[in-house]
Fold:
Amino acid sequence: QVQLVESGGGLVQPGGSLRLSCVASGISFRFYDMVWYRQAPGKQRELVATISPTGDRTEYADSAKGRFTISRDNDKNTLYLQMNSLNAGDTAVYYCMGGSSWGQGTQVTVSS
Structure:
């Protein structure tokens, strides 16, 4: 049974940083592209960043470029999203996805 469990969300002030984690089990993590998505209230889910199985290729949504960094540790079956210079527009539930499986999401709220 595939499980993806996100953590690291919370309340942060504008300009602050957060690091999200997603621990995978029941999946050959090292062989899959992994993706971070987010969904803000009243909006469609949008892709934030992707990473190749070995981590040598990454892609970002325009809204994330220069502020977010996706990375992975295949020995720990863990996906990361480092988010810097956060603003209110980043408020959303963040989900990791891999192998067609989704995590339950972690809430990120950016507010003063």
